[in-house]
Amino acid sequence: MQSGGMPEAPHIPWIERTPRRGRWLVGVSGGADSVALLRLLVAAGFRQLIVCHLDHCLRGRASTADARFVRQLAQELGLPCETGRTDVRALMRQRGESLETAARHARHGFFAKCAAKYRCRRILLAHHADDQAETVLWNLLRGSHGLKGMREEQTITMAGKPMRVVRPLLGLRRAALAGWLTAHGHGWREDASNREPLGVRNRLRNEALPLLREISGRDPVAAIIRGAQDCAEMQAIADEALAAARVLDPQGRLHLPALRRLPPALQRAALRAFLHDHRIMAVDRDLLDRACALIDAAGPAVVNLPGGDRLRRRAGRLWIESITAGCGGS
Amino acid sequence: MQSGGMPEAPHIPWIERTPRRGRWLVGVSGGADSVALLRLLVAAGFRQLIVCHLDHCLRGRASTADARFVRQLAQELGLPCETGRTDVRALMRQRGESLETAARHARHGFFAKCAAKYRCRRILLAHHADDQAETVLWNLLRGSHGLKGMREEQTITMAGKPMRVVRPLLGLRRAALAGWLTAHGHGWREDASNREPLGVRNRLRNEALPLLREISGRDPVAAIIRGAQDCAEMQAIADEALAAARVLDPQGRLHLPALRRLPPALQRAALRAFLHDHRIMAVDRDLLDRACALIDAAGPAVVNLPGGDRLRRRAGRLWIESITAGCGGS
Questions:
Q1: Cβ neighbourhood burial of A67 (10 Å; 0-12, 13-18, 19+)
Q2: What local confidence, expressed as pLDDT, does residue A122 receive?
Q3: Facing A141 at nearest CB: one of B145, B218, B235
């Protein structure tokens, strides 16, 4: 892929290991990141790509010019192009959602339409390492479990149907992508990333991360990404340990003798997972402490849950007793 | 402990569960946090306390006044008081250390002297939740494994001997401590915390955390503390899983058949722990990737380690081959 002194295409494991013949939607805003993604895919030999661009109507005439740029790019590359247009601010007011949520719903609806038209339920998005660091920091401030970022591959429900979302660029820095484009003489639309029209995001990017860099004298993006990868590894080990522990009985209740055989941290994780699987939201430290106290046969036998249900211990089992549905599980 | 409309003493699990009769050194700078720690201990019935104050000579006459304040406080409470004096800036220049490192060495040396004099090798320090959030953030920026803070209890080598260090206030906010002192009419020395004479710390506290609060509209200290607790729980599960995996042979080498039976994330953690236990520093992601490739019998059989040693696979084992000591382990 090297061409006459040009910098080599960046090393992207997902691209290297994926068959070229598959069909993929590609979300292209027109910014450096998504233009680089599209061109890297084409350079690697992917041909069955459908360029998808949603105009969020957030930047006036510039938004229209972004859409035009993306259409021309698709034409140059000989790829089909789907463009859509949603006034995200109007949608936000109409639905009483935040700008971020309204934009996400608009994109999901648009991608779902593209998926139906092309019978292709998988999409590539251009989130990169700098996006990831912002996400991790933002999730941390919002109270995520450890350091959590976007996953490289996940399934997201869009307009009621599952869509496989892949982010091949999560390991690459924004500057590396723009550098590769520049070296090859490829243009992009500056500021065309309408993926994150949110003040918080922009302030994390433009104020918080530069301040952390200045204070620490180190690159906070690399440090945060690495921390999130470490957490993901620890979480994977915890998930594996939990799966191996087999704490549920055939009725899906927590089997106390099995639970008591586990080390304390894993008991806690098992209870957290059990509550999460029963859609008990807002499981904070205090609730988890009280739930853990149920494991002890000499402790309390019932814990009130948010939403009115109860976690009950009886006959060597723990289960959720639903107030509305009468006595569940017993 | 409630006294006529006064706010109750804050809930401090360590204080509640610890026998009162034990002897403890207490590090007291004269700031609100350490004065609160000392007074809370006395209020809870601890009597065998030795007040330890090191004047770091960092704030001129104010430093001398801090030391005087602490001596008076100890006298008021009827406790023995040890004060020391080290010109930390001179020490820093003399040894070519950072101010933070010089200050830590000075404190450790001083605490070790107090420990010898009173035959007491355990010390209570007043680090609280705000300190902890700064530590976690700073560790993250420096590249810690996940989110890591100070531990409530740990053993630290001071002047060559082990010292048990306990931080009972890690769960409490600075404001809560100052509020409790104020409500009881107890004074303290403002700015007397010479525990962290470091620019980075102060800037994280005075610039980064307030900015993160402003951007997110949430309390970053609480979020960061919670994230670190979650990471500590995940780490505990991972440690438990690793201990149960039994991957070492009687010679202390990694037993490949055992290693290969583990799920991938745990294999990786086992290799990380093995390298760490052999004092291989700077184990980054790349080195760990290459080390993991050794698990595959069809892959490479040797990986160069920082410092010149090598990690070698032979006859179903992995071990560290020391260049200096000839052929180790085989």
A1: buried
A2: 97
A3: B218
